[in-house]
Amino acid sequence: MTLTRKQRFEAAAIAAIGTPLIEALGATYDWREHGAEHFAAVQREGRQPILALWHGRILAATLYFRDRGVVAITSRNFDGEWIARIMQRFGYGQARGSTSRGGPRALAEMKREMAAGRPVAFTVDGPRGPVRAAQPGAVWLAGITGNPILPFHIEASSFWTVNSWDQHQVPKPGSRLAIAIGEPMVIAPSPDAEAIRRGVEAVEHRLRDLEQQTRAMLE
Q: Read out DSSP for 9-51?
């Protein structure tokens, strides 16, 4: 999709206004962490993590993993443009595409980024759902690169829920946020269709477990 000049201007304006608002909101959060050591441990082994999360936790995840050089897929539409511009301001790189448009190109770009020593991130049920149903991209990339999937979930003690397909969670000011990062998940090299299916199911199962863990951390 080619954006018009007006759309590019509007996306830049949204990013310019939205970034300091997100910064200010994030400064009020009180974080609780479990498994934070896994990210650095993977990199010490000479590998790069493939972060895996649900689409509905993008805002909090953007704040937590900022300025680490993480490359994320962002759609080529208008929403993807302003999201990409905000994420750039938080130190992220972009591979432009989605599971519905430009997916193979974006996955190839992420493969190159990982070979260059950069971690990547997948909203595994993005960009349009169904909600909490993982797509195979992260599993395929793990199998083809030898890098592990690092699943994580974030939950807030108090939040607004956006009226969107992903039921996006926006933590309220002053909220306690819990993040649980699971142990690295290794996928066998060059997985076939059945191995990818099993890997997708394992990612979904792990994310559900991590969600329960974060809720317990807030009790």
A: HHHHHHHHHHHHHHHHHHTT-EEEEESTHHHHHHHHTT---EE
Question: Mapping DSSP to helix (H, G, I), strand (E, B) and coil, where does residue 116 land?
Answer: coil
How far is CA 211 from each of CA 38, 53, 186, rounded to the nearest angstrom? 17, 10, 20
At 125 the three-state DSSP class reads coil
What's the CATH number for 5-217? 3.40.1130.10
CA distance 112 to 116: 6
pLDDT tens track for 125-180:
977 789 999 999 999 999 999 999 999 999 999 999 999 999 999 999 999 999 99
Going 157 to 162 to 166 to 168, the CA torsion angle's sign is: negative
CA dihedral sign of residues 210, 212, 215, 219: negative
β-pairing, 30-34 vs 71-74, is unpaired
Question: Which of these, 49, 52, 39, 35, lies nearest to 204 by C-alpha position?
Answer: 52
Measured in degrees and rounded to the nearest 5, phi and psi for residue 204 equal -60, -45
